[in-house]
Known about the structure:
Blueprint: H1 2-5, E1 14-17, E2 22-25, H2 27-41, E3 44-47, E4 50-53, H3 54-69, H4 91-99, H5 102-107, H6 112-123, H7 132-140
Antiparallel strand pairs: 1-2, 3-4
Amino acid sequence: MEAFESGVLDLPDFYFTGDDYxxxxxxxxxxxxxxxxxxxxxxxxxxxxxxxxxxxIIESKTNELGRFLTGRTPRLDFSVPAPxxxxxxxxxxxxxxxxxSPREASTHEIxxxxxxxxxxxxxxxNSFRVYKKILEKLEEIRQ
Length: 143
């Protein structure tokens, strides 16, 4: 979903082969998608009280599966870790961005071009990111 929302992939990146009724990726689109996927796999996640990258967790779980299959451990647990899918661009934040006045934003040191960018993103249905510093300033604004 993130690939489509961010514009990494779009419908013209796919083509239909009539022989086997499958859609295929354009080669450039595959590379863009793999780059996004690689970035996601390199993001950290909390596992056993540590922050690890997904590739390390997959390796650990593979080793755990190997120990289970060879009988060295009686237990197999694939439920940990659960990915944290958190969006900060909820409806409350979108509403606040769309209703804050430019004067009020400037009193909280949010620049005019930043407010313009945020409003444009808040009007769309796609997810967007807000830098932590700007998010803190937006939270200071009363509604």
